[in-house]
Predict the 3D structure of the following.
Amino acid sequence: MQLFYPHAPSAGPRTPIVSPQNAPLKYLRVEWLRLAPGEAPVEIATGPDELALDILSGRCTARLSGACGPHAYEQIGGRRSVFDGPPTMLYVPRDSTLQISAASEGFEALLIFAPARSAPPARLIGPEECILKTVGKDNWQRQVATSIGENMAADRLIIGETLNPPGNWSSAPPHKHDSYENGEVPMEEVYIFRLDPPQGFGFQRVYAYGPNAFDCAFAVQDGDTVVLPRGYHPVVAGPGYRLAYIWALAGEARRYGAWSDDPKHAWIKD
């Protein structure tokens, strides 16, 4: 079962990362999007999928048409990197067409797709509209920014970004969301990592108990991706390096927080 996908050089404006075709996923598909001013706009037909555009750096202009009706979003985004504040995301429903052009140097984004059964309205979620929380304590404290969550309608997608200070853990205590037991809802997840400074590293552990037990760990660097179809999945930043990851969830149900902690380690909350 391949879970780790190292960062690969761009193969044009759109570079696929993971999908059900190359990873143990049922719903999620993720691509890099990189454009320079003056390059031809990228046009994306969502078809049966809902789509989230997470602007990692720079600005773009986005134009929507199709079932969602015409919308134009000029000069959206603007942060220098994921370490420069909460994200700007654009939610695009199924049966829509999205046209994106770069409005500044350094424009980089993620395209996150999942099959959709309904078509909630398109929505731009600015940094001021995301749900910001400081989670945990001591060396497992981190900041979580949820942009597409309980604050808005979507069909399957829940998306946000987590920032770990140097040496700190997240997804701690380790949690999972792969069953209907203990308040969980089965949802697969993908983590896409960024490091500051970019030569840094962190570690991701993914493990499960029971008859299909497994336990693996990956050294993650800037631009790497880890797929989380099931199991517990804690993350730690290397000393001296801030670690951020964009996380995307999708499943049959959509409920943020529907996970359970590893009972061996849940005591750290007490």
Observations:
- The CA atoms of residues 13 and 102 lie 11 Å apart.
- The longest strand covers residues 187-196.
- The chain has a mean pLDDT of 96.
